[in-house]
Design a protein that fits this description.
Organism: Desulfobotulus alkaliphilus
Distance between the termini: 48 Å
Number of helices: 2
CATH class: Alpha Beta
Keywords: Signal
Shape: elongated
Protein name: Heavy-metal-binding protein
Number of domains: 1
CATH architecture: 2-Layer Sandwich
Strand content: 25-35%
Order of helices and strands: HEEEHEE
Helix content: 10-25%
Largest sheet: 5 strands, mixed
Structural class: alpha+beta
Number of strands: 5
């Protein structure tokens, strides 16, 4: 592999492999990822606020993709991360789509929308 190809590969690896959080609520102080409960499809049993949609890039396997989503949810202070979709390709690489939730009462009548 020549040097240019190596640099392009490293750039793509660094910039294209970030787990993202698209905020739909506000962020809270970060928590320990071990305190974020992982659910599949079901919503938390507490009153909750939706914080963000979380998406992971294609990762080595499903366990790593779920862990990345959990860590991203912890960064924004979530109590739960609900895995909505798992995509696994032919090479067993996986990505997940999830929603992060924080337990607590939310007055949905007073939600402000900034334009």
């Amino acid at each position: 592999m020549n040097r240019t190809m190596l640099l392009v590969f490293l750039f793509m690896l660094i910039t294209g492999c970030a787990t993202t959080a698209t905020m739909t609520g506000r962020a809270y102080p970060a928590v320990n990822p071990l305190h974020v409960k992982v659910l599949f499809e079901e919503k938390p049993s507490c009153e909750y606020e939706e914080l963000a949609f979380i998406g992971t890039p294609l990762l080595w396997n499903q366990n790593i993709a779920v862990q990345q989503a959990r860590e991203k949810a912890a960064e924004i202070g979530a109590d739960y991360v609900v895995i909505k979709r798992v995509h696994v390709n032919a090479f067993n690489d996986a990505s997940v789509s999830a929603i992060a939730y924080k337990c607590g009462k939310v007055d949905r009548e007073k939600v402000e929308i900034n334009q």
